[in-house]
Structures are given as structure tokens and as C-alpha cells.
Amino acid sequence: MRPIDALVNSLPDARVLTDPDVIDSYARDRTFLEPGKPLGVVLAASRDDVVTTLRWASEHRVPVVPRGAGTGLAGASVAGDGAVILSLHKMTAIRELSPADEIAVVEPGVITADLDRAAREHGLMYAPDPSSYEISTIGGNLATNAGGLRCVKYGVTRDSALGLEVVLADGRILNTGRRTMKGVTGYDLTGLFVGSEGTLGVITAATVRLRRAPAAPPATFAAEFGSLRDAGAAVSAIMAAGCQPSLMELLDRASLEAIDDWRNIGLEATTQAMLIGQSDATDGQATAERMERICMENGASFVAVSSSPQETEELIGLRRMAYQAKERLGACLVEDVCVPRSVLPDMITAIEAAAARHGVKICTVAHAGDGNLHPVFIFEHGMVEPPPEVWAAADEVFTHALELGGTLTGEHGVGLLKQRWLAMESGPVAAEVQRGIKAVFDPLGILNPGKAI
Amino acid sequence: MRPIDALVNSLPDARVLTDPDVIDSYARDRTFLEPGKPLGVVLAASRDDVVTTLRWASEHRVPVVPRGAGTGLAGASVAGDGAVILSLHKMTAIRELSPADEIAVVEPGVITADLDRAAREHGLMYAPDPSSYEISTIGGNLATNAGGLRCVKYGVTRDSALGLEVVLADGRILNTGRRTMKGVTGYDLTGLFVGSEGTLGVITAATVRLRRAPAAPPATFAAEFGSLRDAGAAVSAIMAAGCQPSLMELLDRASLEAIDDWRNIGLEATTQAMLIGQSDATDGQATAERMERICMENGASFVAVSSSPQETEELIGLRRMAYQAKERLGACLVEDVCVPRSVLPDMITAIEAAAARHGVKICTVAHAGDGNLHPVFIFEHGMVEPPPEVWAAADEVFTHALELGGTLTGEHGVGLLKQRWLAMESGPVAAEVQRGIKAVFDPLGILNPGKAI
After folding, report:
1. Residue B240 pLDDT > 90, yes or no?
2. Does B1 score more than 90 pLDDT?
3. CB-based contact, A408 to chain B, within 8 Å
4. CA dist., res. A26 & res. A24, Å (int)
5. What is the dihedral of CA A379, A380, A382, A385, to 10 degrees?
6. ipTM of the predicted structure?
7. Candidates A182, A210, A373, partner chain B, best to mutate (most B CBs within 10 A)
8. Cβ separation A440–B441 shorter than 8 A
9. In a designed cystine with A337, which of A27, A401, B92, B275 is the match (CB 3.0 to 4.6 A)?
């Protein structure tokens, strides 16, 4: 009997898929990376299914690639030869939602926006909102420590994770963290699992923090600038003024052109950058107007505060369509550097220089309030991987980000995609202790090998 | 040559103290716990001193007890026989303070309130404010993941820690984290070190997040209640109304009596609890008045919003004098349970029941907005350790906290004091993986043995 047959026999009917075409569709994420030939896909419906799968994998030394909705942008859930894919997307129960304690206990397959909607029925919100939040899962968000648009005010996924139920590689159950707002018993195992890309264990439930939802819809402004540097200065000035935006997004000329090309937004010839910001504070309208004034003082050529929900939706829609607009131009290598906010303009300048030097089209959007930029490197549709000039430009961008005191990845994770630059940031001591931690949880090395660290 | 002489010889002059009386004064924290007989005290002035000390300690297998200002309340810096105490309190440089990036790079001996004051010169603040913040150090705050009064709004020390420079047990330097607001390269080593009580490495520098300071002083209210349950309900209602207080403290009757006994505050016979709250929002005065109304609706017998800075100072002073007032009553075992906010009244009831059943005086103050209670068990001055009835009452309090979904320690840490209850909360799997993590960083077990995990 093949090992996979033993797994099929030990799980309830129809939990394991072995059709090669079906496997292939579960072996990818949203990167261009080509998967190998995994053995099968487990559609876990319960913690028990996860335990069974991991015990089997330990016994047979089979690599396990955990997976949520496969919306990752770094290859963390791309599966290799001989692996078993462990999909958690069918574990969709919101086990508990306590308005009084402002917490929820959820299974990993819950769609992020669904949790947010469930919370809003009680006047609460689940704050982390990666752009993918209508299709990505809490489990995937936890595995990558996903960021999002609102995290400029509310923090990243880790900041909302209070406790986890995790199945370890050998099938043991580990409960981390707590249901309380504070707690310091022992090491921060919850924080360690968040962002570990499925390399330390498989999350089967999470206790997450909810927050009071703002009473009114956010107030929104948009500003156009004749130079990126002015836009960057406006961001710094807005943050320094204590405006505390709940969203602060920057689009560069190349991104705006891609959108204009697709949807004809009447882009002015002189516009080099657009800034879109929101405030969801009780005095949001006044704050948005204050941010508008600061943009004018910093050289904006045009500024408007949205006067209606429809107009707001259009402005945010502009930002949301940025990625799709780029996909029309070609295949995309989406990057994710993050720098200290004060050097955001320098980072943008460095990206433009890299694009020019290597003859590569790069469109950049940024969660500007966080200094987190997504330069998207465009290459020809149908190419299996980016051509050398794209890698060279990406290399230059990463090197500059680190020189400016930044990081390779603000919110997408390392996965497979950033392995080649990882050592440059982490250094040998951090790499060694991380391998040591990995070995504590997964001594056989079966959990998502080759990812994250 | 004794091992300690080799250390004296390898460090600059006067770095090592070996006078037994002096050693004893460095071997204690603010608990009643009696230290052993350590070999000496290193007054580290630089990272190099820390490296030298740890290399020597590894070579000679000498336990090292790192220490900030010794204000801990769980015994984490109480030193045992044959240990070397490594005091970081002379490393007081603020290496960098960047208003534009809202970060500071500080050495571990910086007094927490000094960093806050330095930040305020630039319109910023360092948010974590343990009650000890005028005398405790950033290093000690990081080692214990200290909370404080403002953390109901701004989070605990971990939420402000972006990156660390750490000397490992063998003298290697590990840099964790980053200077950016977001970042997901590798495992969260920064979060792992925060709260690890010096058992994984010695922090020699930290990059911390600063925040915009509120434009105006906070608005403050105080409310008196005839029942603790009403006070607890008011806390829940205030949080549920989205008031987002920047401080929300509860004092029980026993605490108020101790203060009244000392300072004659005119305590009414019917007052069972007092709530003190603040809002530092731009609409703080209106929010304080809203919280005042909610207290009235929840049965407060008296409520007032402070009309002057002096009055505010008096109200907050009441809270600050709670611990000293208790120390007049006897020796103190200070505990630190944290429960989900909705069961705060149940927890207070359980504390009162334990006090009555075991005939022990317990005074409780709480960071009520976080569900974090400090029941202080009073016993006779001069006793070396708490009598059996105090331990029995404490045991009952801890058991109830866990039954209510809470934790043994919200912000003080495990240290030595909570070792006897630790297994009840963590369970065997978490204990085992924590020992595994400890062994990765400190295979010889020389770093603060017997603490934290």
C-alpha cells in the first residue's frame, strides 16, 4: 500500500483528493511559481483530521504544505514534489463571538471579511484587512501575519491574535496565549506562530481580538501631486500632525497610467502621484479636511474631500483596481519592501532608478502611512518566471530597502520568493536560532520545508 | 584564581562589585523573596561588558541574573547562590530619537519615564507606563513585557518593541526585528524576547515605537459605587460604548479604606468601589462626560469630571498611593490575575470570598479596562514569607482566575513567585516547547535559571 492510501483509509470519506489536475489547482498561490507534483490534498474538516494527517506525515516522513485560500504573494503555500497539501479552508466555524469581551474564537478557514461582518452585527470590527480579505482566510492571514489598509491605525494580524490552538508536527495539541487582553505567562508562543508560514505547526483555531467599529463611515480625501517627493512629504506631515489616518495609500504615475489606460480616469499629464487617505475618528470629517490642507501646503495640485459614500467608494475602488490594472500589462512580480516612513520618497526614487537602469516596467502602490511599498515588476505574459533584468531590478530594490533601514517584506512574507535575499537581512545568528526553533517544533522537518526562514 | 577573579580581570576597573552587603542589595526585587549568596555584581557599561560577562559565565558555567532597576514584583531578578548579577542600569544612552520615523533606539538602563519625557520634547510619547515608570528601566520593562495604566488604550511593552540587540548566552550578538512599523521577515524573535525575563539572552539595545502625544492633557472622571458589581457593569458599558478610555482604574473598599486610614479622604460608609477614568482623545472632555453619564446609569452614588489639572492630579494620586497605603498595613504579596472583562465582577467576588474563607486581608486595585486585577494579600510585617493561609487564599484566587478564562499574570510576569501555579495554566505541551526554545538560546542553562517558564 502506498503511504497516501494509508492516509485515505485513516480519514473519513472524500477528505483526500488525488486527481493530479485537482492537486495542481491546490498546489499554487497567487505568484507565478510553479509547483511540483504533490501526492494529494487533504480537505480537513476538523482538528482531528489535522492530527491524523500530521501523525501520518510524521510516520511516513512526508512534507506537509498547509494552506488557506491560496491568496499568498510569496509562495508560502506552493507545494513541491511528494508533499501532501493540507487545506484548512473547510474549517469555517466562528466558534464564539463575545461582544462583552470583544473577542472571537474562529477556525482557520473563516474568510477574513466574513469575520469582520459577523463582528459588525455587534458594533465591533475585525481590524486586519489585507487587500485579499474578501477571499483570504484567517488561517492564511495568521500564517503570514498579514497587514492591510487599516493597519496604519489598527496594527497587523499579530496585533489581533490573542491565542491559538495548534497541532504540532507529531500530532500533539498546543494551546498558546489566552482570552484576555493582557497576559505574560511564559514565552510569546502566539506571536511566534503568527507569521511562521506553517513551518512550526498547523493552526486549527484562533482567539482574536475585536475592536469597536467606528460609529460613522470614514471620511476620505484624495490628493494629486506633481512630484512623488511632495507626496511623500505630505504623508510625513500628516502623520507628524497626529491626524492618525485609518488608511493612507499612495499610487505612483505608472500605477495611475495602468488604471487610466483601463478605466479612463482622466489622468492629468503632470500628475506624478496620488494620495488617498481616510479618517474613521469621531471627528473624521474635520480630520480629513485637515489632511487636505496639509496636502495643499505640501504642493498638491488638486485635493478633494469626498462628499458622499459613492464618491468614497470610487476613490477606494481606484486603489483596489491597481493590481488588476497591472495584470493587464503583463505577468507580475509583486514585491513588498517596507522602510522607515521618513525615507519613503528615497525608496520611491530608488525604485524608479532601478526601473530605468534595467529597462523594467515597475508600478508602485504603497501603504504610505506604514512606509510599506508594493513595487510590481511587469514582465511578459506567459513567461514561466521573471527574466534576468527583472530579478536584477528586484535585487537593486531590496538592497536599497535594507540600506535605508528597511525590510524585504512588510506583510507578504518570505515564502519561497524572498529566500534568495533572506540572509542579507537576517544575518547568520538569526538564521541559526530560527533553524533551532524550527527543530524544536518540527524535528523531522516535514512542515512546509524551505519556507519562511 | 577563583572564577570571579578572572571576570574582574577581564572587565575594566570597578565594573565588578564583590562586597557581600552590596551584592545583597542587588540580589533583590520588590517582592519579599530572599536571595541566595551570589558571587558578584557586574555593572555593565557597554555591550562589550555584557559579551565579556556572558562568555566568562559560559566558560565557568556560572548562572547569570540580568537586572534593570529591581522593581519587579515576581522575583525574576532575585539572585541565587553562586550566580553573577548582571546589572544593565548604567547603560542609559538614548542612542537615537527620530521624530520623523517615530522611533527611538535606547539602551536597557534608560528609565522609562525619561524616555517618555525625551519623546515629549518632540510632541511624541513612549506609551507603556507601568506604575513604576519613574524608577523602572526599559530593559526591565522589556524583560517582563510590562503593562501599565495607559495600556488599556496603547497596549503593553511588546506592542512598542520593534527590534532588539541581544547578547546570547555564548556571547554572540543577535539583532532582531527592524526599524519599520511593519515587517515579516522570519520568526518574531523580538516578541519572543519581550517577556522572557532574561532567560533567553541579555537585551543591550531596543528600537521602540513612539506615538504622537495627545494635544491636550487627558480629561478625568471619578465615580463611587455602592456595589462592586455595579462598578464592573459600568466598566463594561463604558468599553461597549466605544469610549476608548486612556486609563480605567478600579479600587475596592479595602484599598479605599487603607488610603482613607492614611490620608483621610472622607470615604463614605456606603462606598464599595471607586472608578477613575481618563480620555486623552481630542474630544476628551466630552468623552469623560459620557463616561460619567454611563456610571450614573449604572448606579454610581457620586460622579465628577475633574475641572482642573490639580483635581486630576489628586484623583490619579489616589490611585498611585494605593500600594503605599497597603504597605502600611503589613507585608504584601502582590498578585496580578487578568480575566476577560465581562467576568471582572465575578473575579472580584471570588477574591472577596477567598479573603473571607481564609481570614486574609486582601486589597484589590484593577486596571479594569483590561480585566487586570492586583489583589494585594496583607500579612504581618517582618515575616520572611507569607503564612499558609495567604498561600491558600492566593491559590484559590489563581484557580478562579483560570476557571474564568483568565491568566495568572497580566503584566508582572512569572519570575519565581508564580512557578508553583504555572503548570496549571500552561499545560505540559507548552511547557515542553518552551524548555526546547530555552535550550536553543541557552543550552548550558546559565541565563536566569528557574524563572519565567
Report:
1. no
2. no
3. yes
4. 5
5. -30
6. 0.96
7. A182
8. no
9. A401
